[in-house]
Amino acid sequence: MSPLGLGNDIGGSLRNPAHCCGISSIKPSVGVIPMATVIPPEDNKFAAVNSAVWSGGSFVYVPKGVHVEVPLQTYFRINAENSGQFERTLIIIDEGAYAHYIEGCTAPSYSSDSFHSGVIEIIVKKGARMRYSTIQNWSHNVYNLVTQRAAVYEGAHMEWVDGNLGSKVTMKYPATYLLEPGARGEILSIAMATSGQHQDAGGKVVHFAPNTSSSIVSKSISKNDGRSSYRGLVKVYDGAKNAKSNVECDALLLNDDSRTDTYPYIEIEEKTASVGHEATVSKINDEQVFYLMSRGLSEEAATGLIVRGFIEPIAKELPLEYAVELNRLIELEMEGSVG
After folding, report:
1. By C-alpha distance, which of 103, 117, 107, 50 is closest to 80?
2. What are the b/e assignments for 34-64, b being 16+ CB within 10 Å?
3. Which one of 32, 94, 166, 310 is most buried, counting C-beta atoms within 10 A?
4. How far is 74 from 66, CA to CA, in rounded Å?
5. Any residues with CB less than 8 A from the CB of 213 and at least 6 apart, and which?
6. Residues 34 and 23: beta-carbon distance below 8 Å
7. Residue 3: its pLDDT value, please?
8. Count of CB atoms situated within 10 Å of the CB of 186
9. Which of 165, 142, 44, 128 is nearest to 85 (CA)?
10. Cα–Cα–Cα angle for 52, 58, 64, rounded to 5 degrees
11. What is the reported pTM?
12. What are the mean pLDDT values of the chain's consecutive 10-residue runs (339 residues total)?
């Protein structure tokens, strides 16, 4: 566990942003590929094992001023029983460029456990914008331990849209390092935990520079004995004048056996910073269910409608076909089916 209390994604590298994000090796062109500079092997044990054994993944470079209008799409699948997957993704968005990258994950159900440990590094240069969306639907025998981090430069904008529905255990906290003035970061996270699942998700934002801004919105749903957790970091360094950050985490419990936990960590060194945090935990309101049933819906349909309304702020950020898929996967989880 790091001194910041966040374990595997922070470590000592926060103390020197130039070191942890390899600023000196990031060139104006793609002639030098800065692999393992945003997340070096020594960052954490999962990054180390990924660096040692990775054998696939994806690389994206968007040249200066290019706007990619159609989302880039990838799909990761574990096909073998009792196996591991260690892909690595590197994305570089050059100055003034834009791209949306969508990742899907799934695996057949086996009797023995599998392990997924991916590393995602993103560099968003001056005035650029990047959105990285994930719909994670691993089977319930997969341990999903992922390290994701973006280095964001002057006036650039990084967005994470993170959906976690599958796996036995997920530990995933998309991180954004705001390295230069005017950089912005947004993290939208949704997690659903049903029987035998533990979804430990959230987000991390580190403000290194003045006039940077960020937001984290996390929503979780717990059913049966499922456990969901929000784990987040907001760190503002001395000198990051007028930095602004807001964190919202909302949890919905569907029955008495479900559980949710919140582990926020906020560390402020700059007296001009403005940081807000709010958290709510709620259950399905019987009056809402009764009202919807009085309009002809079954109890199951009424509950599903309330859950879909709960996640709407995140689902609407996805392209239509992915929003439909996310809603359908949640319906299957509510029914106890295999998606």
Report:
1. 107
2. bbbbbbbeebbebbebbbeebeebeebbbee
3. 166
4. 20
5. 184, 185, 243, 244, 245
6. no
7. 29
8. 19
9. 142
10. 125
11. 0.85
12. 34 40 43 79 92 90 96 85 87 97 80 87 98 90 94 98 91 96 96 92 97 96 92 96 96 90 94 94 87 88 85 79 78 66
CB 236 within 8 Å of CB 270: yes
Give how far Cα 151 sits from Cα of 22, 110, 208, 268, Å: 9, 37, 11, 20
- Half-sphere exposure for 18 (CA within 13 Å, toward CB): 1
Question: Terminal CA-to-CA distance of the chain, rounded, Å?
Answer: 34
CA distance 114 to 222: 23
Q: CA nearest 138: which of 109, 97, 99?
A: 109
Give the model's pLDDT for residue 7. 37
Residue type, 140: H
53 contacts: CB under 8 Å, gap ≥ 6: 84, 86
**Separation between Cα atoms, residue 94 and residue 305, nearest integer Å:** 41
The arrangement of strands across the sheet holding 184-193 comes to 72-77, 98-106, 129-137, 157-164, 184-193, 213-222, 244-253, 274-283
Q: What's the gap between Cα 280 and its chain centre?
A: 20
Which 3-state string (H, E, C) describes the chain? CCCCCCHHHCHHHHHCHHHHCCHHHCCCCCCCCCCCCCCCHHHCHHHHHHHHHCCEEEEEEECCCCECCCCEEEEEECCCCCCEECEEEEEEECCCCEEEEEEEEECCCCCCCEEECCEEEEEECCCCEEEEEEEEECCCCEEEEEEEEEEECCCCEEEEEEEECCCCEEEECCEEEECCCCCEEEEEEEEEECCCCEEEEEEEEEECCCCCEEEEEEEEEECCCCEEEEEEEEEECCCCCCCEEEEEEEEEECCCCCEEEEEEEEEECCCCCEEEEEEEEEECCHHHHHHHHHCCCCHHHHHHHHHHHHHHHHHCCCCHHHHHHHHHHHHHHHHCCCC
Distance between CA atoms of 339 and 336, rounded to whole angstroms? 9
Which pair of tokens denotes residue 218? 């996390």
